[in-house]
């Protein structure tokens, strides 16, 4: 018998005990009735509470499952965004390589033709001294053209290998910031050539970092693509300045465009995942969110935004020289 049942039993005994006055029995009976009603009410509340607790647990479990699914979806989208950036890099370098290789092939074909012509003249003993001098002059020009364009191709391939390897790995190494930034910009030149936007880099040539170049490349790429997509109307002219300098133990990157700026009501949302004002043109709303996470988590730095409508936007990134 529980304490509750024992209390009810004892109270019932009091109401049946003839030795007690009727008044006592009535008072006890009234109290007992109220107590029993209260107990029944508490039992109902307890059952409801137990049911609600189970429901809350079920809801929490479903919410946790939904959160995990959303997190996995976001991770997949982030990875897709990174791969899209790498794909753009591949397309850019392939486009850039096509020009010097084409020039080198053309020069080599011309040299082959000139060599065959002079060889025939020599074989037929019709070659003159002036013909030989002219051939040597043309051959030297063609050779220089071939060499210069193959060197250009080699530089592009080296830049591509460096940037692409960094973007697919998370290795930390020492690198010169200006050389690396210029290699990255070179890989994005086909994208820039389709616009009327001029991009300039200001950076001391001897500025070095011991950090994660792939992460830095992703940050710069995202900021450039974000500016091209959001800051300017299609076909509009503009200027982007990437000013990089050292401030004590930090590298500071001031990324400034002279575009349309960001509306004040959107300033607090620009780093939110999936927030975009340009979804119709393919914006995912992940570029600045990824940028923020890379700067603050991978590079252990900070990023802030200053913007004035119709005047432009500046992103200020501060990264430890040794991340």
UniProtKB/TrEMBL annotation:
<protein>
    <recommendedName>
        <fullName>histidine kinase</fullName>
        <ecNumber>2.7.13.3</ecNumber>
    </recommendedName>
</protein>
<keyword id="KW-0597">Phosphoprotein</keyword>
<dbReference type="InterPro" id="IPR005467">
    <property type="entry name" value="His_kinase_dom"/>
</dbReference>
<dbReference type="InterPro" id="IPR003661">
    <property type="entry name" value="HisK_dim/P_dom"/>
</dbReference>
<keyword id="KW-0418">Kinase</keyword>
<keyword id="KW-0808">Transferase</keyword>
<dbReference type="InterPro" id="IPR003594">
    <property type="entry name" value="HATPase_dom"/>
</dbReference>
<dbReference type="GO" id="GO:0000155">
    <property type="term" value="F:phosphorelay sensor kinase activity"/>
</dbReference>
<dbReference type="InterPro" id="IPR036890">
    <property type="entry name" value="HATPase_C_sf"/>
</dbReference>
<dbReference type="Pfam" id="PF02518">
    <property type="entry name" value="HATPase_c"/>
</dbReference>
<dbReference type="InterPro" id="IPR036097">
    <property type="entry name" value="HisK_dim/P_sf"/>
</dbReference>
<dbReference type="InterPro" id="IPR004358">
    <property type="entry name" value="Sig_transdc_His_kin-like_C"/>
</dbReference>
<feature type="domain" description="Histidine kinase">
    <location>
        <begin position="92"/>
        <end position="323"/>
    </location>
</feature>
């Amino acid at each position: 018998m529980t304490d509750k049942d024992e209390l009810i039993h004892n109270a019932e005994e009091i109401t049946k005990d003839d030795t007690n006055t009727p008044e006592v029995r009535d008072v006890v009976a009234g109290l007992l009735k109220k107590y029993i009603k209260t107990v029944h009410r508490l039992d109902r509340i307890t059952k409801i509470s137990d049911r609600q607790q189970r429901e809350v647990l079920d809801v929490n479990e479903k919410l946790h499952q939904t959160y995990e699914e959303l997190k996995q979806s976001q991770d997949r989208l982030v990875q897709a965004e990174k791969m899209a950036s790498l794909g753009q890099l591949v397309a850019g370098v392939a486009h850039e390589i096509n020009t010097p290789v084409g020039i080198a092939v053309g020069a080599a074909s011309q040299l082959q033709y000139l060599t065959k012509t002079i060889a025939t003249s020599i074989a037929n003993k019709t070659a003159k001294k002036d013909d030989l001098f002219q051939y040597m002059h043309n051959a030297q020009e063609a050779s220089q053209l071939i060499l210069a364009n193959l060197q250009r191709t080699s530089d592009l391939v080296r830049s591509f290998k460096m940037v692409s390897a960094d973007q697919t790995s998370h290795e930390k190494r020492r690198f010169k910031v200006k050389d690396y930034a210029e290699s990255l910009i070179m890989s994005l030149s086909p994208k820039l050539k389709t616009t009327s936007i001029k991009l300039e880099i200001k950076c001391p040539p001897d500025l070095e970092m011991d950090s994660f170049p792939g992460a830095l490349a992703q940050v710069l790429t995202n900021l450039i693509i974000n500016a091209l997509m959001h800051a300017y109307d299609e076909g509009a002219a503009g200027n982007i300045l990437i000013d990089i300098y050292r401030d004590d133990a930090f590298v500071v990157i001031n990324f400034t465009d002279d575009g349309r700026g960001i509306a004040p009501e959107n300033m607090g949302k620009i780093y939110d995942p999936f927030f975009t004002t340009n979804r119709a043109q393919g914006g995912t709303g992940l570029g600045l969110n990824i940028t923020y996470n890379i700067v603050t988590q991978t590079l252990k730095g900070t990023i802030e935004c200053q913007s004035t409508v119709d005047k432009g936007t500046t992103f200020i990134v501060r990264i430890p020289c040794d991340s």
